Structure formats: C-alpha cells, structure tokens
Amino acid sequence: LDLDTARQELEEFIPHVKNISDSSIKKMAGRDLTRFKEFKKQGIAVKFGRFTQKENQQIQKNVKEFLALTGIDSAEKLLFTSRYPEDKDTIHRLKTEHHFCEKISEGIPRPWRLIYYRARKMFDPNNYKGRYTKEEKEKLKKYQALYGNDWKKISELMSRSNLSVAMKFSEIKSATNYGPWTKEETQKLMSAVKEVMRRKVQSENAGSLFPVEQSDSELWIDRELLYQALPWTEIETKVGSRYWRQCKQKWNSILTSKLARGQQLYRGINGLKAKINLIKRLYETRAEEASEVNWDELSNAIGDVPRAYVQAKFYRLKVSSVPLWKRRTFSEIIDYLYEKKLPELEKKL
C-alpha cells in the first residue's frame, strides 16, 4: 500500500492515526493491517490501554510456542538479542524464517509494537531486581553524567531494564517535593505544558497556509491532543522540584478540572443521573476485572470527560457505598452497586 492509503485504512482501527509518524505507519501497514481486518470479521475491536490477565497469558503462550518452534533456549535471548552477540545472527535468521511478528501477536487485537513492548517488560529478568542500593544510585548518577539519557547503554551497564533506570534517575536526580503542590510549582507545570503544546502544534502546522499565531494569546488546541503522550522528562526538568510521574498526575488532575468546569456534571440532579448511568454502563460490560473496562468509551458515554475523572468517581462510589469492598472482586462490587445502590439512587432521583 502507498502511505496515504495505508493511513486511511488504519484510521478505521486507530482513531489517533494522524499523530503517528510515516515510518510507523509503514510498519503497521505490514505488521498490523491484515490482523486488524481479521479481528474485524470476528467482531473484535482493536484495543489500547492496560493489558488484561488473559492477554498476558496469551503473550506467555505465544512466546513459549515460538521458543519450542525455533529451539531458541530462552525468552531473554528471543526478546533481548543484543545481550547475546555470539547468537545474534542465528536468532535473527530464525525470527525471520518463522515469522516472529505474526506469531508473537497471535490472538491479541492490539498493534504489534505494543505487544512486543509488553512481552519485553514481562520477560526481562532485569525488571525484577528489587530496591536500588546506595552504590547503585551513585553508579546511576555517574553513568548519566557520562552518557546523558542513553538509557539503553546505562541499563546494560547496570543490568537493570531501560524503564527502571530512567525512572529511578528521575526520582534521585534532585530534591523532589512529595507534599502538596504550591502555586509556583503549578504555574511552572502549566507553563511547561503550554510551551510543549505550542511547539507541537506549530511543528504540525509548519506547512499550513494558516500557521499558529506567534502570540501570548490562548492556544486553540484539538481536544484529542490533550490526551496524547507528552515529553514528561522534559516537563519535569522545567518544573524542577517534581519527578515526571508527579507532573503527569498533576496535569491530568488540572485537565480533568478544566474540562469538567461549568458542566456541573456531578452535582444535584445531574450528579444522580451520572452515578446511575455509570453503574448501569459498568454492569452492562460484564467485566470480571477493572482492566477489561474500556474507560475511554465509558467516559464519553456518561458525560464526555477524561477517563481518569470517571475512574475517580467510580472509586469514590465503591468506597462510600460497598461494605467491605476491599474483600470483594471487581464484578462483585459492580453487582452490589447494581442490585443495592442503583435502586436507592433511582428512588432519590
């Protein structure tokens, strides 16, 4: 397929396809498009977000079967081939001959790249090494000073995963504040996000006849962009006193507040209606665990708000309404809300 056709066909399965690079589109056209069409015939939608227990088990099964098929003696060799330079050529040949991409993603309605990253996280022995010692933290600081943010190289030197060393350095590189956010910190965060957003929008409109205004006026940004991944380590550096996960959580909180402001979604009669709708929708999903719920779809259905907002409202609802909720399974909590709390709310309404 040519690039435009591939992008157009993928758009049916991936709503945010316009934000994906050309090189990634080419790879997805080869690895994913046929799979996506097959899943569509079976009435199965392409999924994003957190992997379910069932999907994790399918990945384990796929990896095990591929190892048996090829004779490669460990998942680490298969998924982290660069760690075994003496076997590299043989492993690459076997992966090509036995269609590694297709086999590893069998039965899982997600983009191949996400399945591959999930498999690497699951099978990386360097992911499960416990707390960092004082000596390891010092080594991490030294290596980062030498190699910058080349986490692949640093992870090899420390025998820890890429993600682990990046996150740990983010936590230890400066005096991090764990208390409530100050007005000054919040302002720094807002300014950092705005700067990143402005740069993103300007780069995407570089060839447009109507470029973004170079002024201090408020940016009009496609709402979908607010949900896209932001360069959190860069934002963390600009804020200075918080590490990236704190910045991300705070931004989601601000975003939720801003988008919900004025809607009065969870107050008075509207609040009752929203709770009733939430319980009914959750009950209709028949989900056995929270990870099986499509929270994005749910959030659009009950009030066009961010998923984190709906998840927070559900949490408050179960804590305040379900006795001994910690001892109940997710499906038991939903059943209780549907059978006991829903009639009470409908009567009140």
Automatic annotation (TrEMBL):
One of its GO terms (molecular function) is chromatin binding. Residues 124-172, 173-255 form the Myb-like domain. One of its GO terms (cellular component) is nucleolus. Residues 124-161 form the HTH myb-type domain. GO terms for biological process: termination of RNA polymerase I transcription. PROSITE patterns: HTH_MYB (PS51294), MYB_LIKE (PS50090). Gene3D superfamilies: Homeodomain-like. SMART domains: SANT (SM00717). This is TTF1 factor.
